[in-house]
Amino acid sequence: MSGEESGSGTATERSVVVRQADGDDLTAVVEVGHRTWPVTYGPIAGDDYVAMGLAKWWTQEATIPAIRAGRVLVAEVDGEIVGMASVGPSEGHLILWKLYVLPSHQRDGLGARLLRAVIDKAQEDGYDELRLSYLAGNDGAGAFYEHFGFRETERESGGSGIPDSVWMARPLRTDEQEERQS
Ligand SMILES: CC(C)(COP(=O)(O)OP(=O)(O)OC[C@H]1O[C@@H](n2cnc3c(N)ncnc32)[C@H](O)[C@@H]1OP(=O)(O)O)[C@@H](O)C(=O)NCCC(=O)NCCS
């Protein structure tokens, strides 16, 4: 990854692309998790949770099948991958399993671009609902998802000192709803 990030709000013209990931993106996609998880979850769930999550969900082995299945999107700024999203089907619904933007690029519209692309594709594919969970205490994520029309459906206990998972859902059916979010 290039080290030169001028941060958000730069005045220079940027090229932003959101696209499906391919095999060449593997290292960069995994890197997004490794750079985002410690700052996001360290303070609310602790270092052991971060280490567990990175070892379980952010390895190349765990990521290759999702990329191969076309279930991973990336956001590129000037050719550098700075965000990713991954989804998977479950009982007729679609679940957003991961949505991460590098800390240096947050609050710059990239999460919104990724989520919009996920929603558009899910609608195209005929899913009726998009579901996700975030960790209780990750208030930024909660606010972000509410902004895009997700509503809490249930809380799942994290167990052994880990915060609860807050499940949310957003219907995918109507055009009016799309317009309200834009
Ligand atoms: C949550 C996340 C994906 C949002 O992506 P982003 O690129 O930072 O968000 P955007 O710039 O697209 O935000 C769009 C809107 O969502 C809302 N929003 C986003 N982040 C927010 C926050 N931290 N607090 C309150 N509202 C927020 C705002 O309304 C924002 O619009 P505004 O910036 O004009 O006010 C990103 O911040 C992130 O990766 N965070 C850490 C990892 C994480 O928590 N991922 C979710 C795991 S479930």
TrEMBL record:
Residues 154-182 are annotated as: Disordered. This is GNAT family N-acetyltransferase. Transmembrane segments: none annotated. CDD domains: NAT_SF. Residues 172-182 have a biased composition (Basic and acidic residues). SUPFAM superfamilies: Acyl-CoA N-acyltransferases (Nat). Keywords: Acyltransferase, Transferase. Residues 16-173 form the N-acetyltransferase domain. InterPro entries: Acyl_CoA_acyltransferase, Bact_Acetyltransf, GNAT_dom. The keyword Acyltransferase applies. The keyword Zinc does not apply. It comes from the Bacteria. Gene3D superfamilies: 3.40.630.30. Pfam families: Acetyltransf_1 (PF00583). It comes from Luteipulveratus flavus.
